[in-house]
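Input record (one chain):
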Amino acid sequence: MKMIWPPAPYSAGIAITDDPDNGTFANFKTIYDLLSDLKLPTTRAMWIYDAMEPTGTPSLPIKFFSSLLTEKRCLDYCKKLHSEGFEFCLHGASSGNNKREYTIAALDYLEREIGASETFICHSKNAENIYWEDKCIPLSILKPLVRMYSKNSCYGEIEHSPYFWGDVCRNRIEYIRLFRTRMVNTLAFNPNMPYHIFEMPYVNFWFSATKGYLPNLINPEQLDALCLSNGAGIFYQYLHKYIDDKGTIKPDVIQGLKCLSSDKRIMVRSASEILNRLKQFKLLFPVRYNDTTFIINASRKAIHSVQLTYGHDKNDMPCKNNDVFSTGSRIVIPSVEALSACRMNQSKVYRADSGTIRMHGKVAELKFPLGTVLCNLSDSTADIDSRYTFRSRLHGVKKLDPFKAQVFYSNTDAERLEILNPISKNELYRIFTGQTLILLREHLFLGRKLKAAKYLKEPGKVEDQSNW
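The corresponding structure, as predicted from the sequence alone:
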């Protein structure tokens, strides 16, 4: 039996994140009218204000432009799209460096006029970018490689800097986009996504994104493969660049988007929605004990429409929970309540995904690197006694109600963010290597130079998406 992260009836999920750099309102509206007609909600990064400063320290020799959320026609259009499930997040307060008060004002404006977003997408070399440039990777052996790529400095996490907004980021932003891959299944590239790096406390969670030519990412073969692996694709795009000088969307882009829209196996949602689901799914654990499988939810929130796949032997499927039902080769649990367990019949095996399990009578103890989960797997109240090695952290908890769970975290940040399994160094090395390979390809085969000031003079050449 296997749990899959998308809610029923989906097999995979896709989110498109769209950057505004050097796009006009006309192009923005042209592509989003199509996305709206096809019911493909997208996460669009926006600027609120005109730039007060250049971007970068030292400043880059280019001025970015785009329609702003303070422009009435743009705001009215975005409000309409937001009512249809589209997400609007900040790409910084403006296209230039943004001091603390400017960033806070932009977040307030977005929340007041449209609605707060949990996602933030950093722009270029902006001085307020947080843990950017050589600080984006906590592995010291790799920092010199990043310094070779860019000499810019960013200060979003530096408390004495006028660009500091780390405390605001921690309180108001949940996800920031970081590394890139060319794999359609972003989740296969970064399985722990969204992830927290404890050495970077001001960012709650990072996520990776797939950079590629959109029609190549959403052709039928790629969508079939994504569904087969129950994957998640979070795409990094400049959608306005798919429109020619006559204001016409490229035919292969239209065809690809229609293909995606008609594929009912794939959940297309905003980045925040996909990331919220992935984050919560990491706190679901199947445990098998005494002919029964229990799905334990260690989260402080209920998780809905949980899917499990099972083999060809349907006799192995019946459960003791009348709310659970089967559809095709899947079991669907309408809801697993917060800090509780849902029970089902299964084979006599002890197992907990991503952790180790011990049974103390009718209480399961699941140990993880950053915490321990206790769950009462019976229909009667269970006592918690001195057998538990972490009794000093029970905070007065002496009993567990039937099918209820308690989680004891090893540190306050892990508890605040509900993290039991941190991202491994091996995964960090792997995703950084993937990003490095993309940069090398761009430098060696697309004519980029290592110095940003040189290649940003020709942004059209740099971001020729047909070459992605």
